[in-house]
Amino acid sequence: MDCPEVEVFPGHLRSFKKTDFETDWTKVSEGKFGQVYQVKIKLWREICALKVFDANVGTGKLYRKLVEDASNIAKVKFKYLVSVYGLCNDVPAIVMEYMSNGSLNSLLNSHNLMWPKKFQIIHEASMGMNFLHSLQPPLLHLNLKTSNILLDDHLHVKISDFGLIHWEEGTNKKLFMEHLTARGNIGYIPPEIFTQSCDPPGLSFDVYSFGIVLWEILTQRKPYTGCSMTTVLLNVSRGCRPCVEIIPEQRPRECEQMISIMKQCWDQEQKKRPPFSETVRKTEALSEILKIPGPVDCHDSRENGHSVEPRCPFSPVYEISPPQLPDLPAEEQCSKDNVLSLLLKKDFGSFRSSVKLEHVSKQFNGEKSLLHYTVASGDAKSVEHVLNLGAEIDCVMVKGYTPLIVAVLKRLHDIISLLLEHGADPTQGDEDQWTGVHFAAQSGDDRSVRLLLDKGADADPREKSGWMPLHLACQNGHEAVVRLLLTRLSVKAIGEREDVQQRTPLHLAAAYGHINITKLLLSQGADLNASDSSLSTPLHLSAKAGHNRIVRQLVNDGAVVDSADKRGHTPLHLAALNGHKGICRQLLANGATPDARTHQGWTAMHLAAIKRHVTTIVELKQLGASVNAPGENNWTPLHLACHQSEAEMVAKLLAAQADPNVIEDSERWTPLHVACASLSFPSILHLISHRADVNAESAEKATPLHIAAQHGNVPIVKALLLNGADRTRQDSSGSTPVDVAKRHGKCEIVQLLEK
After folding, report:
1. 669-728, pLDDT tens digit by residue?
2. How many C-alpha atoms does 430 have within 13 Å on its Cβ side?
3. Are the C-beta atoms of 703 and 695 separated by less than 8 Å?
4. 180 has a pLDDT exceeding 80
5. How far apart are CA 240 and CA 267, in angstroms?
6. Is residue 617 a contact partner of residue 652, using CB atoms and an 8 Å limit?
7. For residue 33, which of 163, 179, 131 has the smallest C-alpha distance?
8. Which residue has the higher pLDDT, 90 or 617?
């Protein structure tokens, strides 16, 4: 997509109107304070993110504050920070840079990350935070968490939502903490905020939050799962932190240093937490050791004639240890081996005149040969000189990397050609059976793939878990590599599955949103209804991930829209569960069964209600799904919404003609019973206004008033009484609501009922 030719936002905000965007909005996420949509700006033809806030933000002081904050954020430009473009006045919303791979929180929940990718994410997040803290005055984030760390097309990090939370002079610390916890930040708040001190939060606040983020990345778990807010506050105040022991034991040795950084960041004493200026240097060094490439400017990569992308961020099934390439020999080793010192200095002329036969046959640290080091230096003349001295061309170092694999990993095309001309084996793999073609396909290096294939490399070798280069290229979106491999593969090979999840290349292209590769595979005869080990088809995976164009392509090409996976989920279930209303619309328009049930008994409407996707509920209803469909134990979506105390969802369901008096099977509770048990006063008001029966009896003949009396909620009891609840009704044990209140020690309710 072409970018604007001029800088559109030179330090100030642009004002947008709703009509400035195309009408097809796709909801990306939904939180407590609003929703985020993927939209396209008509004028620029550019996809952006629209962060829509709740209606109460759009008036008065709150909106003026939003404008001020957004104006300040728009001035902050850095490659590891999400850019803010402007405000939409009639929504209200912030218009921001669109990050196609969503939040780090979602990524950690859905994919098994390799250690190199984890280290890269940590380093890039530290880069963004270091930039914010280096501003004059420093800009505190105060809301740093994995859901505010976003990922672009190539899974590089950009930090969002910075500058939206402030500590004003005279702020009450208790109110400030309540504001943070309302955003779901309890696990990221440092212990000093819980104390009675009136000191404002400083730079160490963000450092502590970053320590918790590190733990989430290393473990791919959520901290303090199942603990109440009070428990978290007490434990954190006492110095307790998330369990370090659950970090996987099979980890690179560099992980110990990263754990040390994490512990320093969440130290109980603020003064002992390191500044980001120090942390960023350490994370950079650790990332360099694991050979993680940094973000690449899109213009530079095009000018060089190839697309530079990161290595595959997800472990296909297992962890792939990074190549221990001989880039920089240790200084002490250079002092012992002068030829290595010359390579380090890039004094290639002196190197060639100094190297002797004994150097060529010598084995250095990590079982590396001189040829490995010379290849890594990038000087083709020196490589040829070492080869002419009799170097073993297919010698292997730690992990089984040959000089040819080293050249492929470093994209040294002239040296790749040179090694192949001297007889290097293009089919030889490392200890995990990864060949040069695997590595080149994974990184999108189509030139290396062609060089290797032309010299006899196999187009379909399998590494130890059955992944072919085509799988890797499809997962990572390298279209040029896919096209090249398809010229050398049979139709049968196109449908080959990797061994563990049994996914075909089409599964991977669909799951990761690569539309052109999807079209290409389909045109070559790929089976669009192939199922993996969980019985998921490519349509399941693309519907779950929210890839509208791929869903449309698969459906148009004849994909079965109602196929069910092992849990009984159809693509419609997965789209509804993840709030992808546009995909729900596509599937239903193409014959999907609107009220199909999972093995647990839930319909798409239930799943949307469980995940609080209000707009998806409305869309499903408009397209024929039943708002009263029974699920497990005959629970309807309205039962679920009442159970979750989601008053807005309750209101939307009732507005869509949900039955307020429907009865579930086992206990024969109505939604009003459930709302009373959940102490959801707003939900109860909505139900009563839609003529819910306040005297409905459960299987035990308990009315909603019995339930409310047991829980002791005065406003709920008053609301029920004002709307005709019978205080004399007896349950199956002969107890009236006042008897229940007395039995549970609810004195205020007893007085109220006895008036």
Report:
1. 999 999 998 888 999 999 999 999 999 999 899 999 999 999 888 999 999 999 999 999
2. 23
3. yes
4. no
5. 10
6. yes
7. 179
8. 617
30 CA to centre of own chain: 14
Asked if the peptide bond before residue 137 counts as cis, ω within 30 degrees of 0, the response is yes
153-178 burial: b if 16+ Cβ within 10 Å, else e: ebbbbbbbbbbbbeeeeeeebeebbe
Exposure of 97 in the CB half-sphere (CA atoms within 13 A): 24
Residue 501 is encoded by which pair of tokens?
Answer: 């999840």
pTM above 0.70, yes or no: no
* Of 212, 390, 408, 233, nearest in space to 311 by CA: 408
195-201 contact pairs (CB < 8 A, 24+): 195/237, 197/173, 198/173, 200/167, 200/169, 200/171, 201/140, 201/142, 201/167
What is the residue type of 133?
H
- Written in H, E and C, the secondary structure of 12-75 is CCEEECHHHECCCCEEEEEECCEEEEEEEECCCCEEEEEEEECHHHHCHHHHHHHHHHHHHHHC
CA distance 215 to 259: 8
Does 505 sit behind a cis peptide bond, omega within 30 degrees of 0 on the bond before it? Answer: no
Residues 6+ apart with CB under 8 A from 5: none
Work out the number of other CB atoms within 10 angstroms of the CB of residue 737: 31
Q: What are phi and psi of 103, to 5 degrees?
A: -95, 155
Closest by Cα among 146, 143, 80, 144 to 118: 146
Q: Which of helix, strand or coil describes residue 159?
A: strand
CA 435 – CA 428 distance, rounded (Å): 6
Q: Cα dist. 743→99, 211, 678, 736, 746 in Å?
A: 55, 48, 20, 11, 8
Least confident range from 248-252, 385-389, 582-586: namely 248-252
Start-to-end CA span in the chain (Å): 71
For the chain, list the domains and their CATH numbers.
14-97 (3.30.200.20), 104-289 (1.10.510.10), 528-626 (1.25.40.20), 657-754 (1.25.40.20)
Per-residue pLDDT, 183:
62
The answer for residues whose C-beta is within 8 angstroms of residue 69's C-beta and 6 or more apart is 163, 164, 166
**Lookup: tokens for 693:** 């029966």
List all residues 6 or more positions away from 110 whose beta carbon is below 8 Å from its beta carbon: none
Distance CA 482, CA 105 (A): 30
Contact 414, 380 (CB under 8 A): yes
pLDDT digits (tens, 9 = 90+) for 264-307: 999 999 999 999 999 999 998 888 765 433 332 222 332 332 22
* Three-state DSSP class for residue 308: coil
Distances (CA, A) of 505 to 168, 336, 518: 53, 49, 9
Instruction: Identify which has the larger pLDDT, 453 or 185.
Output: 453
Residues 6+ apart with CB under 8 A from 311: 114, 116, 117, 292, 293, 442, 443
401 torsion bin: left (phi>0), alpha (psi -120 to 50), beta (else) = beta
Cα–chain center distance at 731: 49
Contact 587, 575 (CB under 8 A): yes
Least Cα distance to 265 among 251, 288, 290, 283 occurs for 283
Q: How far apart are CA 431 and CA 435, in angstroms?
A: 10
Percent of the chain predicted with pLDDT > 90: 51
Segments in 304-364 forming alpha helices (H): 331-336, 338-344, 348-354, 357-361
Q: Determine the length of the chain.
A: 755
Q: How far is CA 294 from CA 180, 336, 561, in A?
A: 32, 33, 40
**Amino acid, single-letter form, for residue 642:** C
The Cα-based distances of 741 to 123, 619, 705, 731 in angstroms read 57, 42, 10, 13
